[in-house]
Amino acid sequence: xxxxxxxxxxxxxxxxxxxxxxxxxxxxxxxxxxxxxxxxxxxxxxxxxxxxxxxxxxxxxxxxxxxxxxxxxxxxxxxxxxxxxxxxxxxxxxxxxxxxxxxxxxxxxxxxxxxxxxxxxxxxxxxxxxxxxxxxxxxxxxxxxxxxxxxxxxxxxxxxxxxxxxxxxxxxxxxxxxxxxxxxxxxxxxxxxxxxxxxxxxxxx
Length: 205
Fold this sequence. Notes:
The protein has helices at about 5-25, 30-35, 40-50, 65-70, 75-80, 95-100, 110-120, 140-145, 150-155, 185-195, 200-205, and strands spanning about 170-175, 175-180. It is mainly alpha-helical.
């Protein structure tokens, strides 16, 4: 009777360990257990600030913090706002996109629990409160601005620093008249500085 080769005897425990790990990870609920790992203190504080009524900006359905996502974790704008570089409209993150990350972690955060229970399980879109709004007769195209190299922060402010997004004030002057952010004169000033067209049909229907 032949003996098992020494190399095989050494490999056997590792093989058994690998099989056990694969079986455990494949058990129902294993991913849910992993998702319950404790979130960082920074994430907990950011969630709290995202629903702080003393801060400027509307209260959103979910306490989402751009400061954590775009700031600390440096997630690119286009990862969540998919297609904004190809479309006139800014893409709004889908519930599926959010769950692509939060099915795996953040389960102890109230915002993630709301995401899962009220939207993912109910198959409902998140009704975000719009912050930056232009008149209906203005045809602003996100894709053209992104392709021209205009940073998102130019219009939206330093969102990577915001736990709660709001319309950041910005004033300028147009022909001796003060203009505020997203007003016509404010946009024309930007177009002039960047040698962009100021023809009426460039921006108006």
